[in-house]
Amino acid sequence: MRSLVAALLLACGAIQLPAAEAPWPKLPERDGPVVIPAQEWPARPGPRDVRVQVHYPGGTRASIGPRTGIFLTLHNWGGTDCAGTANPAALAREFNFVALCVNYLQSGPKDSIEGPEPYDFGWLQGLDALRALWLVFNELDSTKTPFARGRLFATGGSGGGNVTLMANKLAPRTFTAVVDMCGMKKLSDALAYNLPAAGGLNARWSRDPASPNFLTPGAQEIRFVGHPAHLAEMKRLGTTAKVFSVHGLDDKTCLADGQEMVANMLRAGLDITPVWVSKEMVDGKIFSTTGHALGNRTLIPGHVAGRFIRADSPDALDRKTPTDFERREDIRYSTTDGAFVISYAQGFPVGRFEPAPTAPSYADRFDLLRVIAADGKTGVAESSADWEPRRRHIAAALERVMGPFPNPAKRVALDVKVQEEVKLEGGLLRRKLTYQSDATDRVAAYLFLPEAAAKAKLPAVLCLHQTTKLGKAESAGLVDNPKQYALHLAQRGYVTFAPDYPSFGDSKYDFDPRHGYASGTMKAIWDNVRAVDFLESLPEVDAARLGVIGHSLGGHNAMFTAFFEPRLRVIVSSCGFTTFRKDDLPSWTGKVYMPRIKIEFANDAAKVPFDFPEIVAAFAPRPFLTCAAEKDDDFDVSGVRDVLAAARKVYELHGKAGDLVGYYPKGPHGFPDDARKVAYDFLDQHLRDRK
User: From CA 635, how far away is CA 632, in angstroms rounded?
Assistant: First the structure.
C-alpha cells in the first residue's frame, strides 16, 4: 500500500510546499540568475527551488518600459538554461521583453535522462515555469513599475515545447501567445514505457500499480495538451492565447502527436496556427531540416509570429483580460480517476490532485431508476439528467471487471497500410488493410466502399464477427456463410468496416497484461474505438451516421464497444447476451473475455458488479435492436426479455421507448434471413434514411 500511495503522489505531484516555507526573491538589477521556491516533488520529498535566468531588454531592470512584456523561453529535455530554445538575450532586446530561462524540474541530463525517477513531462515543470513568470509579473505589478501586462509569451523546443504548451494549459487565461517548436504533445505509452515507437526516449514510468513509478490514468491525461475534454474546458474558461505549433514534416518524434493536437484544438475552437515545415521551406538560415531539430530556434518564433510579438508592430497582440495570477481562482481538469486542480489563491500556482470518490455498488441490477447520490442517499430518477450519475456508476462497474478504458492519451497515429484492393460486382471496392490500434499492436480489417461514396458522404457501420478462426473474413463475405453483414450492408449502400477480434483472423494477440489491458474484452473495445477513429477520418463517411452490428461474440462486442463509444449512434446485437443470472458465467472468464469474473468475483453473478440490463439502459436514447433466437442454447432468450423490460424504463425517461426493440426469430443460436432483414431495416431507419 505504501508503494501505491507513493506512486499516486509522484504521478500527481500532489504534495505542495507550504507558503510559509516559500520566500520569494527580488528581481536582479542586471541580467542574471535568481532562485525561486518550487512545489515539492514527491519523488524527493523536501524543499525544492528553481534557478531562473533573467534577461532585460537593455540589460538592466531600469530598461523595462510600458511596452515591455515577459517571455518564457524553455529548454529541451535534458537541457539547462536555454538549450534547444530561443536565445533569451535576443528575445529581450529585439522584441522588448523580460526574457526568462527556467531550470524547471529535472533540468540537465543527470535527473532527466539518467535518474531513476520518471520524467515529469510537463506537470510540475509547467508549474515551475509559471512561477518564474509570476515572479516577474508580481514584482513589477506590486512595485507599480510600468510594463505591458498583456504581453505574456512563451516558447520552447522539443521538451521545452511540451512545457510551453503545458504552461498555457495550466494557466489558460494568462498567455498572449505561445510558440511551440517541435514539442512533445503527450506522455504517450511509447514515451512512458520506453516502447520502440518512442525512438529511444524513455520517461521511465511503470504500468505496475505496486511500483513507485506507476503512471495513473489521470497523471497521463493531465500531461496530454491535446486532451479534448481539457481543451473544451480551456475554451469554456475563455482562453484567448494564440498558439503556434511548428513541426518538420519528417519529424519522427512528434509530428503525429502534433497533428492530433492541432486537429483537437481546431475542433475545440481554440486559436491554433500550425506550421508544417516542408523541404521547400528549408533555407539554411531559419529552417535547416524537416526533422525534429528544425533549425535556428532563436529565429523561428520571430519568423512565424513576429508581427504579433514585436512591441512596435501594428499587429502586436495585447491581452486585455486579467491573468490567472490576478483572478486568484482555481483551474480544474477532470480525469478518469479524479481531477487536477491548479490553485492561484496565492497568486502563484499550486497544483494538486483530487481522487474521484469510489462509485457506489447496486445490489439490484434490474432496479435501474435507482440512483445513489454522492452523500450516499438513494433516490429515484425522474428525468434523463437525474439518471446520468447511474450511468457513470455503471461505467465504473464495467471497468472493475474489464479493466480501465484507455484514456485519450493512449491514441497513436492510425498508420493505415493497405494490403490489397478488390473490385466487386455492383461497383463495390473491398480493401484489406491494417491499422495501428495502440503503441504495440496492429489490427487487420476489411473496408467496403460503395460506388456512391464517390459522390456523397455515406453512413458507416462497424461489423463485428462471431467466434470463428476466420475472424473478419466471415462478415466480409469471403466464406460461404449467411453472416456476411459487412458485405450485405455495403451492397445496401453503407461504408462498412470489419476488423478482427484480438487473436482471430490475421490479428495475432497473446493477451499478456504487459500490453496494458486487464481483459481481452477491453482490448477489443479499444481496437473498435480506433476503428471508429478510422471511419470518422474517411472523406466518404458521414461521421454523424455511424452504427455497429455483430452476432454472438460480435453481438456483445458491439454492445461493450457502444457503451464506451458514443459516436456509434445505432447498435444491433444478434444472439449476443442474456442476463448473467441466467447464463453460464464461467464461459465469460477466458483470456479473450474477462478473467476477473473468476479471479475477483468467483463466477458469482451476484458479485459481478454489472449486468446487461445496465448496459442496455446506458445506450438510451440511442436506438438498440437485439435479435434473440427463441431456441438459443447459448444465451437464454427469457433473460434477454428480462433485460429489455428493465432497460425500457430508462428509455422511457429519455422519451425513446420505441427505439428499444427486441426481435425473436424461431430457430436456434444464429442470424437467419428474417432477423438480418429486421436488423438491416433498423439500420436503414436510423442511419441511412436520416440525414
Answer: 6
Q: Domain spanning 408-688 has what CATH number?
A: 3.40.50.1820
Range list of β-strands (E), 259-362: 272-277, 330-335, 338-346, 348-355
For residue 117, give the nearest of 13, 196, 39, 37 by alpha carbon. 13
**How is 634-659 classified by DSSP, letter by letter?**
SS-HHHHHHHHHHHHHHHHHTT-GGG
Amino acid at 670: G
Which residue has cell 445496465? 614
Residue 651 CB coordination number (10 Å):
23
Where does the chain hold its CATH 3.40.50.1820 domain(s)?
A: 2-350, 408-688
Q: CA–CA separation, 76 vs 158, rounded Å?
A: 5
Instruction: Tell me the per-residue pLDDT of 542-598, one tens digit each, with 9 for 90 and over.
Output: 999 999 999 999 999 999 999 999 999 999 999 999 999 999 999 999 999 999 999
The values of phi and psi at residue 397, to 5°, are -65, -45
Grid cell of 429 as nine digits? 471496392
| Cβ neighbours, 10 Å, residue 633 | 8
Phi-psi region of 338 (alpha: psi -120 to 50; beta: other; left: phi over 0): left
Please give the helix or strand (H or E) that residue 446 lies within, else none. Answer: strand 442-449
Q: Write down the CATH superfamily of domain 2-350.
A: Alpha/Beta hydrolase fold, catalytic domain (3.40.50.1820)
Residue 10 confidence class, pLDDT cut points 50, 70, 90: low
Task: Tally Cβ neighbours within 10 Å of residue 52.
Answer: 27
Q: What is the mean pLDDT of residues 244-266?
A: 95
pLDDT of residue 311: 92
Sign of CA dihedral 645, 647, 652, 658: negative
**88: closest CA among 77, 74, 78, 109?**
74
Task: Please report, as a single letter, which amino acid is at residue 333.
Answer: Y
Read off the pTM: 0.92
- Residue 6, pLDDT above cutoff 60: no
Alpha-helical segments (H) within 171-253: 189-193, 217-222, 228-237
The 10 Å CB-count burial string (b at 16+, else e) for 65-80 is: eebbbbbbbbbbbbbb
Tell me: pLDDT of 4 over 50: no
Q: CA torsion sign, 19 to 54 to 96 to 92?
A: negative
Rounded distance between C-alpha atoms, residue 623 and residue 248, angstroms: 45
Peptide bond into 66 cis (omega under 30): no
